[in-house]
Amino acid sequence: MNKKPIKRVVIAGGGTAGWMAAAALAKLLGKNLSVSLIESDDIPTVGVGEATIPTLHIFHRLLGINEQEFMAATNATFKLGIKFENWKAQNDDYIHSFGFLGQGCWAAGFQHFWLKGKEKGMVTQIGDYVPEHLACREGRFAVLANQEQNHAYHLDAGLYAQFLRKIAEQHGCKRVEGKIQTVTLNEDSGDISSLTLASGETVEGDLFIDCTGFRALLIEQALHTGFEDWSHWLPCDSAVAVQTTAKPNPVPYTRSIARDAGWQWRIPLQNRTGNGLVFCSKYVSDEQAKAALLANIEGETLNEPRVIKYKTGTRRKHWNKNCIAVGLSSGFIEPLESTGIHLFQRAIVRLMLMFPSNGIEQADVDEFNAQSRADVEDIKDFIILHYHQTERTDTPFWRYCKNMPIPDTLAHRMDLFAGTGKVFKKAEELFGETSWIQVMLGQGIMPKQYHPIVDMMSDDELQRFLNNIKANVKRKVANWPDVNDFIRHYCQSQAAQ
Ligand SMILES: Cc1cc2nc3c(=O)[nH]c(=O)nc-3n(C[C@H](O)[C@H](O)[C@H](O)COP(=O)(O)OP(=O)(O)OC[C@H]3O[C@@H](n4cnc5c(N)ncnc54)[C@H](O)[C@@H]3O)c2cc1C
Question: Which domains occur in the chain, in start order?
Answer without folding.
Answer: 8-50+156-229+312-378 (3.50.50.60), 238-309 (no CATH)
